[in-house]
Amino acid sequence: MCAICYCSEMSFDFEKLFQAAPSPFVLLDRDLRMVWTNEAYQNVTGRTRESLIGRVMTEEFPSDPDSVHGRMLRASFKRVFASGATDHLPLIPYPIAGADGEIEERYWSATHTPIPGADGATEFVLQNTHDVTDLYRSQPEVGAPSAEHADLVRRAEVITRQNLELDTATDFFQSVFHQAPTFMAILTGPDHVFRIVNRAYLKVVGERDLIGRPVREALPDIEGQGFYELLDQAFTTGEAVTLRGAAITVQRDSGTPSQELFLDFVYQPLFDAEGETTGIFVQGHDVTAQRIAETHLREAEERFRTMAQTMPAHVWTTGPEGGFEWVSDQLYAYSGRSVGDFDGAGRGDVLHSEDRARVRSEWRRALEAGQAYEAEARLRRADGVYRWHLVRATPICDAAGKLVRWVGTNVDIDDQKTGAEALADLNATLEDRVERRNRELEDVHARLRQSQKMEAIGNLSGGIAHDFNNLLQAITGSLTLALRDLPEASPARGRIDAAMRSVDRGAALSSQLLAFSRQQPLQPRALDLRDMLAGMAGILQSALGDGVEIVVEAGEDAWPAFADAANIENALLNLAVNARDAMEGRGRLRIAVANRSMTRADLAGDDEMAPGDYVELCVADTGPGIPAEVAEKVFDPFFTTKPVGKGTGLGLATVYGFARQSGGRVTIDSAPGEGTVVSLLLPRSRQAVAPDAPAQPDPLPRGRESLLLVEDDAEVREASAALLADLGYIVRTAPDPHAALSVVEDMGAPELVITDVVMPGALSSREMADRLRRDRPHLPVLFVTGYSRDAMLHDGRLEDAVQVLLKPFTQERLAAKVRELLDAAPRPATVAPEVAADVQAGLRVLLCEDDALIAMSMTEALHESGAEVRQAKTVAQALAHLQAESFDVLVTDLGLPDGSGEDLAIQARTLHPTLSLIFATGREHVAAAERLENSIVLRKPFGDDALHAALANLRPAVPVRPEPGMFGAAGSA
């Protein structure tokens, strides 16, 4: 409110009253700006109205704010504006400039009266002041104030100064109160009305209007958290309440989420003179940051412990003086100690006695210097074994740089130490090892050259053997068939027999070529070499002659060998004949069987063999021996010391290739005048020896099954097919795997597939067999080969369950192998004739087949079992029968002249829901059979037994008997 407005609100008489008053009056706003004065004030100050109005009092009457009078005046104004109550200054020294400009020390008595504004708050202060300088000085002049007045003024000065000191102390207290780092508040009355709060308190609860309001009204967001109740408790009981880390949720700012704080505080009751509780002093600290830091510290410690417990190394911590605080589980497990065992002196027992003094001395130095510690020491394991560890410890300091903890680890370095010692030893023997390694490299290079030479010759000979075997097979087949057409007394029989013997010699030569090149298909099994030697005794003695004494040494504990029986026999016979020739028919031949466990050291320089158990077959003669330069070449193919025409040079090469292909080796030990020892190592079998299969009584077993022959060589294919047809089999042929798949798709799957291994085209014979077996998993397949070249081999041996017939083969071998596979294959279920008759008697069957011969054959088989049959050649004819009559079973082909057998079956099942279905087809899968219940797929070609079995497997097992005349007067078609 401006002075003019203010004056306009007062009546004219009221202002005249103040103007006429002898006491000085001045009106000041909140900035202490003078807005109105009366004449008495102007006179006493020696100023004019114009020089006062609008001026700040402290500027017009300057004073040092820190002076006594300056502080007294400002404190009085502050009390009036803050409290709205009148304030008195009985005596205040206040200098002012006189008319001449000289500053004169004057004494005043002032009363400050509040003038409220429209809102009730103090807006102006009316100062009434009196100049009491003369009274204060009390000069003894005429008319001067009395001594009593002077004493009164001086007492007023003392009171004023005491009030100033009190104001100063109050200001100091309030300044300290508001600037205190802890939050504080004073609550009065049982409702806990806020009287004083400092800035720290407002920082906790947010900037709110608290003064004069009860706590429940001022802080409604803390309701339900127990603080109201604690205040009531402290006020009622008069006992202080102290909490530490108390959680409180407050909403500091309107519209923002609530915050969780943690506080340490005390509710201290305040008492009056009579000891009654008048209020509560609240004081405390916001420890939220500390609480969060402690939480983070705990989480960090937990992460450290988790990490330490999962580390393979031992982890431990100690205090600053070196005493253990914590040890990871790995160290307890390693040492076998219990929790607490590392706290005392006993922890030193884990250290090796030779390491204790050194380790402890180094640890003391690290503790004294506060520097990282590192040492190597042997620590005892729970089983008593000492292992080398690298022990490290790092000092951990706080923010002030004070060492508070050590964190240490023990890392097992025993293997590294052992390796380092071994390395040192190796370095000491480096020269010897280099020389030995050079010799080993020379041996490796020699073996590599030998291997490359053998592989090159093997590739060449293998390719030759393949074509050679095909030629021999074609010749064998033709000669066999020609021999059957000749009378027993024909002279041509002798010439054909001679030709067959030549074929056998050619086959033996081809087998040798494949053997030394490690490309012959082997069929290893568990063999008892003692039984084999016993069985070969007669053959060996006959081959060696009476001049050679044979001594066999084989203990009862000899292990079984894992190898191909025929190749072992050939190898032994080959070695025996070579020994006989070396001894020139007279001498002693020792054959020994022994168990050998070969270590890596025993096999040094032999990269083709693995350490393990082997069976050794030794052949030792008493011949003249072999020079070293000859012994190096005896296993080379085509190397021989025999005269021209007396040997091919493939004998020992064949043995060498067979041994390597079997996973073993052959070695020779000989010197002039000391005889020769050839040792054949073969892998030990972990399986028991199975008894030999009984001999086939019929040299030419026959059959009527359907066979598929796949052979790319036309002459071999024609000859082999003729041999099979001669045995009574139904033979279909194909020149390659793709053509074979087409034959099966068109004519149905055979009961046996005979296929050459090496075939032209992108599809191999093995892949063809796998595709055929997708639909018929148990389909037997016979692989015929004269040169497999890894097509059917795994590590030089035939894969499991693979059946192989080697070219060239005779009709006898072919017949036996084919019959063996057919007899071993799962057969369709058959039904005994009496059961078939019982099941099918009176059965009403509708047969839909457009092939007249097949329809006639099936009808006869069904009639023989007592079934009644109607025939149809088309879908239309079959549907006509189904609409006119009732049937138990529909037997239908899939490919019919006017539609599909599957569509016929679906329509038939609609007409007769209980009708059983048989799909007679060359296909393995029929979609309708998979969807329709009580349906069976009967694969063509099939016999009567298969047809009867299919009918027996349908539901119902016993058909409903037809009524007389159900099929009409004509009976069955």
From TrEMBL:
Residues 420-451 form a coiled coil. It comes from Tranquillimonas alkanivorans. It catalyses: ATP + protein L-histidine = ADP + protein N-phospho-L-histidine. One of its GO terms (molecular function) is phosphorelay sensor kinase activity. Residues 244-299, 373-425 form the PAC domain. Residues 10-61, 300-370 form the PAS domain. The modification 4-aspartylphosphate is found at D756, D893. Residues 706-822, 844-955 form the Response regulatory domain. This is histidine kinase. Its EC number is 2.7.13.3. Residues 463-686 form the Histidine kinase domain. Gene3D superfamilies: 1.10.287.130, 3.40.50.2300, Histidine kinase-like ATPase, C-terminal domain, PAS domain. Keywords: Coiled coil, Phosphoprotein.
